[in-house]
Design brief:
The complex is a heterodimer of chains A (49) and B (817). Chain A is an all-alpha fold. Helix content of chain A is 59%, strand content 0%. Chain A has two helices and no strands. Chain A is elongated, with a radius of gyration of 20 Å. The longest helix of chain B has 38 residues. In chain B, the strands form six sheets. In chain B, strands 17-29-28-27-18-25-26 form a seven-stranded mixed sheet, sandwiched between helices. Chain B contains 27 helices and 29 strands. In chain B, α14 packs antiparallel against α25. By secondary structure, chain B is α+β, with helices and mostly antiparallel strands. The chains are: A mainly alpha (49), B alpha+beta (817). Chains A and B meet through α1 of A and α6 and α7 of B.
């Protein structure tokens, strides 16, 4: 069971890493618009606005 | 020499100079000079003579001045009279009802402030002050002094603020949820094992939980701590106080137990409590932002720049300037598919203009030279040249958004009541918690902390401080999407109690405009052909009938030799045939045939226009003040809601009866003066009825004022004349019953939430105080309860997707086309 001394700290580090990654993705605006990009990719309008 | 702006010593050989008040002034740096330049450009040079102490260097202080200047330039400040200015402020840093209280009270004490109204749900404040004793920068600075930031309300800034707010909350919530899952995982062994986890592994698990709880307490839960701190500083109790106390106490006790290996550990309860509470707040925030969006989308549509033609009509070269700099009298060009930057009158060009934003009319209207265009509408077809008649803060759109703004920054009575009750609730709760702690200390000291924590955590004031504002905001958003604007904050409450609706005829049940009602053809030609003949004859006329024909939109043919005979009609030649169109007797003289039998069935309410050629009658057209297509549906749906409907009209009794019978109203009164309408409503009220009056706002003012709640239909162009509580943009009468239904639903939801909160707290708090609730169960109970009330409030924002609603929507579309 000594492996727990590796696995539990590892899970803590992983959780913190995921938390940081998520924090970064939110602050860089990736969650601001969850619908727009899905529509943008199928709209085929190349004319300048 | 010292800097004229900030008072710092100027560096030797300074070159930053600027002329202010007629003298050359020296500045210590480019920043100071830039600020001084802005002040001079805004015509606020008197700032330097009026100020009592020198300004700080560009930074905090000048930020407020900049905001003030920008607000003045954008027309965000309403000058009510010489001693009153009014502005809407957007507040940053409001967390709970107590923040509202402190801002209101603090500002009220400032000399020169006449009125302050802070709305928690919209994060906005309406301040009315005396510009002779108080300047806006000082007002903004005063708010900054007590720890909030206020900006003159500007839709674009609101968007940025909303995004920042939702990003912060989203990442706090996500991190708390992630930590919660992992800490729960670490807690499982302790819950599952029968004889306890081996000591060495339990220590490891506890330390791992502690590490993961740290970000939850010191990052995710910070809004609760700040909120509680603000509450305490303002000597008020908001819902954040018990939450912060509970989280802090449980975390401190658990951390202590982890280090000393003595006592209970509740990291799982702490993380779950914070995470689920943040989830509830996240939903509340989403609802609030969505509600604001529907209405504010309007103001965002305004373009930033305008194409000005300085040399018009001699030269036509355009220059691009900021839309805010347009002044009355400027001539601008509006390109195809571009939004109109200011109200104006068309000088040149014909195009169709979409005014859905302002009039609720979804079809573009054809505009020709001399017609008015409104800021915010969209030019669809071809470029227009327009002379500006109103720009910036004086456009119809600005008036509309100010009105909406005013309603949004007022707090309805029910909201104030909920704030007050929440304060009492929390102080009572803290007393119960303190009492429980004291008593359990004597009974069983080891359980005292656990029980106090459970009491603090299990209580749920959310129905008061979270769900009531959320319900009101969600309802306003749902109505806003249908272009129904509650202009007075208490209008929703009055609407929910309505038992009697009084309708006006002209402009309400009918469109108030002459329209083509019917075409009877007397030959083989179909109605469209007949209409195109008539339209051709009436082409040049400005008679109401001719305008109504143009609205009917038939394709015109070419008529020659057109002669208009005043009071009779027009005569002209189309494709070699002579036609007469007008009064039947006059038109009949062209062929001397008797009046056809169709003439008999025409009633008194309509004007008849006959079309004839030399061989006989061609067609009959009836024109009248057409009934709105949704009138009958409105009366039916009001009856279904159990609401009595009456018609009170200034028209002749015959007309009133005709209209009342057509739409199914039993009680009608004709020949009513505005004063009669008022008396009629007063009589209803004295019998105990709550009366809603629907009128056109201009002629019905006394009646609208007497009614408990008043509604008008119309467009933003005439907005300023209205005195109504609820404004329906557009021509759909059905919105009246939608508004009543939504108001009823809103108050039903608020009552349900209060009932739930009362029942839940009445059971949960005594249980917790007597030691029957574990911290984990308490966290779960409170979170689920907040979730229930917030989710219940959010039902109001949901689009109505029931089959009946879809059917109604389809009917409306058909009627519109």
């Amino acid at each position: 069971m000594d492996i727990l001394y590796l696995l539990i700290p590892l899970s803590v580090v992983l959780a913190l890493l995921i938390g940081c990654a998520f924090w970064w993705s939110v602050t860089s605006g990736q969650f601001d618009d969850l619908e727009g990009p899905a529509h943008r990719i199928i709209s085929d309008d190349d004319s300048p606005v | 020499m010292r800097c004229y702006h900030c008072g710092e010593r100027n560096p030797p050989g300074a070159v930053w100079l600027l002329t202010i008040d007629g003298a050359e002034r020296g500045f210590c740096c480019a920043g100071c000079r830039a600020v001084a330049q802005t002040i001079r450009a805004a015509g606020l040079e008197s700032f330097y003579t009026r100020r009592t102490s020198v300004a700080q260097r560009p930074g905090e202080d000048d930020e407020w001045l900049q905001h003030a200047i920008a607000a003045e330039a954008a027309g965000l400040i309403a000058h009510i009279d010489a001693s009153h200015d009014e502005i809407s402020l957007l507040l940053e840093g409001i967390r709970c009802g107590a923040c509202v209280w402190i801002i209101e009270n603090y500002l009220q004490r400032l000399p020169g402030v006449a009125e302050v109204d802070v709305n928690f749900a919209t994060r906005r404040a309406r301040v009315r002050w005396d510009p002779r004793t108080l300047q806006i920068p000082e007002l903004l600075r005063a708010i900054a002094n007590i720890g909030y930031r206020a900006y003159p309300y500007d839709p674009r800034r609101r968007e940025a603020l909303a995004r920042r707010e939702s990003r912060a909350l989203l990442s706090r919530m996500a991190i708390a949820l992630l930590a919660m899952m992992q800490v729960m995982m670490f807690a499982v062994p302790a819950y599952m094992s029968t004889d306890g986890v081996e000591r060495e592994y339990q220590i490891l698990l506890d330390w791992a939980s502690l590490v993961l709880t740290l970000p939850v307490v010191f990052y995710s839960a910070t809004p609760f701590f700040f909120g509680a701190w603000h509450d305490l500083r303002s000597r008020r109790l908001g819902m954040d106080v018990p939450v912060a106390l509970g989280v802090a106490a449980a975390f401190a006790a658990s951390a202590w137990a982890t280090v000393t290996r003595h006592g209970d550990i509740y990291f799982d309860s702490v993380t779950m409590f914070v995470a689920l509470l943040l989830v509830a707040r996240w939903f509340e925030l989403r609802a609030r932002q969505k509600a604001g969006d529907a209405i504010e989308a309007m103001a965002r549509e305004l373009p930033q720049t305008a194409e000005r033609l300085p040399g018009f009509p001699a030269a036509r070269n355009a220059e691009t300037i900021a839309a805010a700099k347009l002044v009355v009298g400027d001539v601008i060009r509006i390109d195809t598919a571009a939004p109109v930057p200011a109200d104006g009158e068309i000088l040149e060009g014909r195009s169709s203009v979409e005014e859905a934003l302002l009039t609720g009319e979804s079809w573009p209207r054809v505009k020709a030279p001399g017609d008015k265009v409104l800021a915010g509408s969209i030019n669809r077809e071809s470029p227009l040249i327009v002379r500006v008649t109103a720009a910036g803060g004086s456009t119809a759109l600005a008036a509309l958004s100010r009105l909406v703004e005013r309603a949004a920054s007022q707090k309805p009575r029910i909201g104030r009541l909920a704030d007050g009750v929440a304060g009492w609730f929390v102080s009572a709760l803290l007393m119960v918690a303190a009492g429980a702690a004291l008593i359990w200390w004597h009974i069983d000291a080891s359980r005292a902390l656990l029980i106090t924590f459970a009491v603090l955590v299990v209580s749920c004031p959310c129905a008061l401080s979270l769900a009531t504002p959320a319900a009101l905001a969600a309802a306003a958003g749902a109505l806003g999407r249908r272009k129904i604007l509650a202009v007075r904050a208490d209008a929703m409450e009055a609407l929910s109690r309505v038992t009697h609706v009084v309708l006006d005829k002209t402009g309400t049940l009918t469109t108030g405009r002459v329209q083509l009602v019917d075409v009877t053809t007397l030959r083989q030609q179909d109605a469209a052909q007949c209409l195109s003949l008539v339209t051709a004859l009436e082409q040049g006329s400005v008679h109401p009938i001719a305008l109504a024909l143009r609205d009917a939109g038939a394709a015109a043919r070419v008529a020659t030799n057109v002669v208009a005979v005043t009071g009779c009609g027009v005569e002209g030649t189309i494709a070699g045939r002579r036609y007469r169109c007008g009064h039947p007797e006059w038109a009949g003289r062209i062929h001397t045939m008797p009046l056809p039998s169709a003439a008999e069935s025409i009633d008194v309410e309509h004007t008849v226009v006959a079309l004839a050629d030399e061989h006989g009658w061609v067609a009959w057209m009836t024109f009248g003040d057409a009934m709105r297509p949704s009138a009958r549906a409105l009366v039916d749906s009001l009856h279904k809601l159990g609401i009595e409907v009456s018609l009170v009209s200034g028209d002749r009794s015959v007309t009133a009866r005709y209209v009342a019978e057509a739409v199914g109203i039993d009680e009608y009164h004709g020949d009513a003066t505005p004063e009669d309408k008022r008396a009629f409503i007063r009589a209803l009220q004295s019998r105990g009825a709550t009366v809603a009056m629907v009128g056109d706002g201009v002629n019905d003012a006394p009646g609208l004022a007497q009614a408990d709640v008043s509604l008008t239909l119309g467009s933003a162009a005439t907005l300023t004349q209205w005195t109504a509580d609820v404004v329906v943009l557009g021509s759909d009468l059905g919105c009246v019953s939608t508004a009543i239904q939504t108001a009823r639903r809103t108050f039903r939801v608020i009552r349900q939430n209060l009932a739930w909160a009362f029942g839940y707290n009445a059971i949960a708090i005594p249980l917790a105080a007597t030691g029957h609730v574990s911290p984990l169960a308490a966290s779960l109970g409170m979170s689920i309860s907040s979730f229930i009330v917030v989710a219940n409030a959010l039902r109001l924002a949901r689009r109505d997707n029931s089959p009946r609603a879809q059917q109604a929507a389809r009917a409306r579309l058909l009627a519109a086309s």
